[in-house]
Amino acid sequence: MTVHNIGIIMNGVTGRMGTNQHLIRSILAIRKQGGVALPNGDVIMPDPILVGRQESKLQSLAETHGVERWSTDLEACLADPYNEIYFDSQTTVRRAESVKQAIAAGKHIYCEKPTAVDLDGSLELAKLARQAGVKNGVVQDKLFLPGMLKLKRLVDSGFFGRILSVRMEFGYWVFEGDWQPGQRPSWNYRKEDGGGIIVDMFAHWRYVLDNLFGEVKAVSCLAATHIPNRVDEQGRPYACTADDAAYATFELEGGIIVQANSSWTVRVDRDDLLTVTVDGTEGSAVAGLRDCKVQHRVNTPKPVWNPDIPNPFKFREQWVPVPENQTYDNAFKVQWEMFLKHVVVDAPFPWDLLEGAKGTQLADLGLQSWRERRWIDVPKLGL
User: Fold this and answer.
1) Is 378 within the bounds of a domain?
2) Binning pLDDT at 50, 70 and 90, where does residue 161 land?
3) What is the rounded end-to-end Cα distance, in angstroms, of the chain?
4) Residues 217, 203, 169, 239: what is their CA dihedral angle, to the nearest 10 degrees?
5) How many whole angstroms separate alpha carbon 76 and alpha carbon 48?
6) Residues 115, 163 share a domain
7) pTM for the complete prediction?
């Protein structure tokens, strides 16, 4: 058995998601399980080096989780041939420049989305990576959530018949920071710092829709800044310059209509923070992050509109859960393992920087639609 030790520069993992999902629940979990097993019996063992701008945060994070390597010198890390992969989970406005440096240094690229602040920036990264011949990938975590995997199983089996429509509800109330601290960083609400729910969430909706139901062909979007002022992490009031809610309609290939509400200003009365409802000629499904329930054509009740009597139907009881049938690992970890195999043994990995650029494209067009108050077609992307 050969162990393939592979150095990974992890830039920006001192943030909540970078720490929890990418470092602890992905890379360190892979190390704890003994690496990523290959079919020939070999093993890939990731060896992270934590990189960032604040020495105290890096040192504390490394000591807490037993990570031996950390640095504030990105250039030195990129110059070390032992580090083969560069990973970026910095704020959006910082990402593109660092990824360019890593591509120039010949590193394989794996990064969060959005990959850049606009489509031109995202396409530039994809072109540079292709020209340099480095392998590259973008985090598409929601594809690997149990609820979405169950939904994909239903689609692939033909359960829905002809899919008619999809409704997506995402969001929760993010506290304003005055009498309770906010659950999201303040930069999310400043356009000048790369904030806004369209920029944040449309990158997700693009890969979910493209991979589960069909390519997005057109978008109509109305957004708002419902909460005009918030209080930051230091207790300082600030004006919100970015959208905190977006109400969109997408047209997919095949005529499927999607309604997607995304909001950080909504109180939750549904089964999960994200629910995806799919209606088809033969059946329907409602999926959350982990669970999925279905109602087939033969089990569909026949309600009649009559507001003069109490509702005789218990609609929620008439759905059947999709069984687990398998063990589901952490969604971020699953994709990390796939990318590591892609780098070491050239296993397939279709979610490259060009796919990431599609998410930035949809965000750009969503913002344009809001600004111009009209439908916008979504052109095909290529390099």
Assistant:
1) no
2) very high
3) 40
4) -120
5) 15
6) no
7) 0.94
